[in-house]
Structure formats: C-alpha cells, structure tokens
Design brief:
This protein is of the alpha/beta class. The protein has 24 helices and 22 strands. Strands 6-7-4-3-2-5-8 form a 7-stranded mixed beta sheet. The chain has a 7-stranded parallel beta sheet with strand order 12-13-11-14-15-10-16, with helices on both faces. A 6-stranded parallel beta sheet has the order 17-22-21-18-20-19, sandwiched between helices. The C terminus is likely disordered. It binds adenosine-5'-diphosphate and magnesium ion.
Amino acid sequence: MSFFDTPIEYLKGIGPTKADVINKELGIFTFGDFLRHYPFRYIDKTQFYTIADVSVDVPSAQFKATLISKQLVGERRGKRLVAMVEDHSGTMELVWFQGLKWVDKQLIVGQEYVIFGKPNAYGMRINIVHPEMELLKDFKPENATALQPVYPSTEKLKSFFLDSKGIMKLQRQLMLSAEKEIKEFLPSNILEKYKMMPRAEAMREVHFPSNIKQLTRAQARLKFEELFLIQLKLLQANKGRKLQAKGFLFSKVGEHFNQFYSHQLPFELTDAQKRVVKEIRVDTNTGYQMNRLLQGDVGSGKTIVALLTMLLAIDNGFQACLMAPTEILAQQHFAGLAELLQGMNINLKLLTGSSKTKERKELLAQLAEGEINILIGTHALIEDPVVFKNLGMVIIDEQHRFGVEQRSKLWKKNVQAPHVLVMTATPIPRTLAMTLYGDLDTSVIDELPKGRKPIETVHQYESQRMKLFGFLEKEIAKGRQVYIVYPLIKESEKLDLINLEEGYQSIVKAFPMPKYQVSIVHGKMKASDKDFEMQRFVRGETQIMVATTVIEVGVNVPNASVMVIENAERFGLSQLHQLRGRVGRGAEQSYCILMSGNKLSADAKTRLSTMVKTNNGFEIAEIDLQLRGPGDLQGTQQSGVLDLHIADLAKDQKILQEARITAQEILDTDPYLEHPGYADLRKYMASQSKSREAWGRIS
Ligand code: ADP
Ligand code: MG
C-alpha cells in the first residue's frame, strides 16, 4: 500500500470519529484524497488596496484608512453600528450587526487602521460587513505576507473543529510527511514543453502558496495533470474499442436504404445530415463497434439520420431499435417513421409501458423471431423479456434523459454489442463534450434545413401584458396555436401551481369560450388526462396550451407558432432554448416571447438578452457554461466524469485543449504507453484505476 492510500484516520489529529465525518461529508478516505481537497480560494493579505480600487469582484480586500465617524443606528433587531473610514482615494462604510457594544468601545475616531473584509454591493455603494480591524501602529507586516488558503467545509465538519482553519492545520501536518512521497509522473518532454512546475512543489504551493505567481503556476500544473489523465483514459478507451475490432460489419448499402433515399425521402438532406450519415457508414464498415454521439439542435433533423442508420442495419441483416425518453415522444417517432416508410416492406413496431399484455406478448415473439425490423419504444425496451433475434443498431434519442446503466443494458441485447448512436438536442459546449463524451466519436448537425424562418425572440416586461394579449389574438386569428409556459421549481410546487392556475384563469378570461379553447397540462395531472389535453392541442382543437415545463421534450405541433414563457427570468438558458424549440417547426414565422418582472439579476439579464440575440444552441450552451459552471449543466451530474478537484471546464478551456492534444499525440505513437519515458505515467494511472473503479464508461 502506498503512502497515499493510508486511511485518513491515521493522520495525527484525526482519529476514527473525525475520519468518519470526513468520509461522509467530503468523500475523503485516504491521504491522497485529502491532499486533493484543494483550497477553493485564498485570502490575499499580501497587498493593500486603495478604497477607490475596492470592488465587489474581489473576494476580499485589505486597505489602510482612518476612522472618521461611527454611529449606532436602528432599533432593536435592526440595530447596527455604522462607521466611515477614509483614505486619500475615498470613503468606505463599515457595518456591524453583532457585538455592537464591544466593537464600539474598540473603535477610536481619528485612528488609522488596517481593515480587511469582503466587499458587498449595498445599493449603489460598496460596504464591508464585520471587517477585521487592526490599529495600524500594532500591525505587523510579517503576518501579512502569505496567501491564506480557504478550504471547503460543511456545518457538520465545523462542529468537529474542521472549519477552513482546522483543515488547513491538518494539511500542514500531512504535507510535512507527504512532500517527499509525491513523485513526478508526467514525462519529461511535457514538463519541458510547458515549463511545468514539478509535482511535489505544485502540491505544496497550492496548499501553501509563497506568492501569487507561484500559486498560479502550481494551479496550472495540477489542472493540466487532472485533465490530461482524464483525456488519456478517454482516448485510450476509444482506441481500445477500435483496436479490439469487435463490431458488426455493415459492409453494404442495400436495397432498403437506397429505395428510401431515392424514392421516399420527402426533402433533400442538408449537407450536415449527409456528412453525418457518411460518418456513420464509415464507422459501421470498419469492424469495430460504433459508439457515436450525434449533437444537433432542436429541429436540425436528427430523426431522418436515425432512420437511414437503421435502414443500413436492416440491409445488413440486423434489427434496429430506437429508444425515446417519454411515451409521447416514442409515439410521435412511431407515427412519423411509419409515414416515412409507407409502402416499404419494413416491419415497424412500438413498445411502451402502456402496451397491452396480449399485444406485448405477440410483439415479443415476433421480435425474437426476427420478424420485426425496427422497434421503437421507451424504457420498456431495456427490460429483460425484450429479446431480439439479431440487434445490430441501437439509437437513443435525448440521451441525457437516460442513465449510463440503462443505456448499457441495451448493449447486452446481442452476443456482441450492437452499434450505438446516441442523439442529443442539448448542445454541449466543446470542452464539456470533450470530457463528458471524450471516449465517444461525435458528429454534429450544425445546420438547419433550408427555408426555416428563424424564430423571432423578444423580451417583454410584465407591464406590457395587454400588448401581449393583442398579439396572441392576431396570431390565433391567422389560425396559429400558442404555448404559454409557467416555471415549475420543486421547492415551491404549490406556489407554482397557484401561478399556473391564476395564469390559466386570466387567459380563459381574455380568450373566452366558445370562440377560444384553452388546454392546460401540468405535472400533477394523471398521465391519461395529460395525454388527452395534449392530443386536443396536437389535433388543433385548442388554440392555447397553458402548461408547465412538462412539454419541454418532444412534442411536435408544427402549427404552433408562438411560445410565451412566463417568469422567464426563473428558467435556465438551456431550458429556455429547449422550450423555444417547440415552435418554428412549420412554414410560418414563429415567435418566442419572454415575459419577466421588472427587477432582474445580472445573470437573468444576460440569459434573456442571449435568447433575444441568438438562436444558435451551441452559442447558448457556451454562455450557459460561463454563467453556471459545468456542475449544473444537464447530464453532468449523473456522469461522475466531472469529478474534478481543481480544473474548471468553464475557465480552463485552454488547458483542456492542450491536455487533449498532448494525450492524443502520445497515444498516436504509443497507444499502450510502452516507451520507458512513460513508465511512471503508466504506473500512476494503474494505481489510480485500482483505487477508483468507477470508470466503466459506456456511451
Ligand atoms: P430533431 O433534430 O429536433 O429531432 P426532427 O428530426 O424532428 O428534428 O426534424 C424536424 C423537422 O424537420 C421534421 O419535420 C423533419 O421532417 C424536417 N426535416 C428534417 N430534415 C430536413 C431537411 N433536410 N429538409 C427539410 N426538412 C427537414
Ligand atoms: Mg428529435
């Protein structure tokens, strides 16, 4: 067992009780884990600001100033002490809410202080609440030369004296013995190329920086290391799959594919669609198993690519299946594909949770006999009784809705894994895709079918509601249909429902029966009621659909041309974009109207203006990543791949790029890292994969 695998309880000052809390609260079990518990920021007491330079953008600021006034204000619970300080550049307000008497006694007007604290925005001004104050004449500069690490902690940990300071002490303790154990493993040519700080030094500097410059270098080194190891693993997995060469060979483009392509295709494919079909054909004709991600914005035409891919499988003697996340979506796929395949000799079937027992039995028998060519369905497809005769191609729509485990079950539906194409309409920023799906090959449909009119998006304030109603009236008079969507946030489900109900009532009042028909759909309704209302809208029997976000995925009503999003400031960017994608599916000009209150946070403003500015899902995804960070983006939580300790996919794009290229270059010449120069790297990776077995990534 290596030093780094030593259980954390053996660190002096921890013991079994604290170790247990650390395990549970932070997922830290060993010395190695603990060393990777990096500070998330540093208190910088190495420099002095002038008051004019203090902004809310710095996490904390230190400055020298003279106390010019102090005053107790407010009554009872609102009571506080407000002081003003001044330097040559300006004045700053300091505020205390607690220990007022004591603080008041300490502060002496006319004296000069060293002041340290976190700047807050307070109206148009900046103030500091509960600053640290020290008389300038008592201030010892040597106490203020270091960057002080701040570690993530929790309430529970704090009750065991493991606040940031407590953790820092333990880190110091551990570093004493750890530093000499930390071995370099990056190959020397990489270290030289990037002038990288050696590993042991980087670990020390990141916990106990000697100055900003060293800290920055240390962070860069550790970020690179983290991302580089991930990229090596992902690319190795991808290469490994290809080297093993164990995939069904689709050697020919046959009768069904050709017939469909020449006679049934209702439109010409876009160049992007053609390119992707070609990529898939090349993949499936090499003898290795395809594991490909297809990204394409809503409406970019992924379904037709899926169909062509399935026809390819059929022509080569295989069955294919298409799995969708919801029943409505599966039904729509079934109906849509049945229409496209009309007149062709292809047996297409639908299997969902609500398929009747008798039908189901028949269907399963046909499937096992190989009589069914294409099976479409929901989660029902992955259940054990679903046995194919010869499944060769699996297509998964809206893949982020499925867990890895669910998907992997489909892999096992044949003696040898079928080819897999996963499709997503949630554009993923490049850096994230590289990390989340770095072991997949990716295809992108980055072009919409010709003749689509871009959706016009506007942002309107609550006060402009009458104008909105007028606009809706006109659109409905033209025969169009309208969605009105309300937010649904779990914590306040009741309130949201009231919102929705009130919204519905006001709509019904403004658009009265019998001239107008209004549908309502929300998550608390019975599935059958939801379906009934949905179908009324799909058939055009209702003009307005009032709904919560349950309509986000799937539904296709080409005649719906207006999407109104209420309280748009409460939605995330990708959700707004998904919702907008429900319109713009027909030939008519479509509109998306974002309604919001007057008071908006800076982030909310950015989200709304981004929506107004662009229809491009990839651009939106990049901005979303910048705003929220990777952890909150769709699909990242379930993956576990983003188990990053120091790198940040939103901020470290350049390092990621370098890490990826470097890993690629190494594997191109030496796929198994056999060169003696890579021995340490190989050893380190082996030791890592032993302690973390969660790396069986499947599509
Ligand atoms: P998504 O990528 O969101 O799944 P769909 O596959 O549902 O998109 O396609 C959206 C609409 O665009 C469908 O009505 C489809 O028939 C149509 N479509 C797809 N490709 C083309 C094309 N090349 N030219 C014209 N219309 C197309
Ligand atoms: Mg689709």
